[in-house]
Amino acid sequence: MENLHHIVVVGGGAGGLELVTRLGNKLGKKHKARITLVDAGLTHVWKPLLHEVASGSLDASANEINYRAHARKHHYEFQLGRMSGLDRGAREVVIAPFLDEDGDEVVPERRIGYDTLVIAVGSTANDFGTPGAQEHCLFLDSLNQARRFHNLLLNAFLRKNHEAQSGNGHELPITIIGAGATGVELAAELRLASRELPIYGMNHLRPDDVSITVIEAADRILPALPPRLSDAATRELAHQNVKVMTGQPVSDIRDGVVVMKDGTEIDSEMTIWAAGIKAPAFLSKLEGLDTNRGNQIKVKQTLEATTDPDIYAFGDCAECPQPDSERPVPPRAQSAHQQADVLFKTLCNRLEGREAVPFVYNDHGSLINFSRYTTVGNLMGNLSGRTMYIEGKVARLFYLSLYRMHQVALHGVLRTGVIWLMDRISRAMHPRLKLH
Question: What is the CATH number of domain 6-123+279-351?
Answer without folding.
Answer: 3.50.50.60
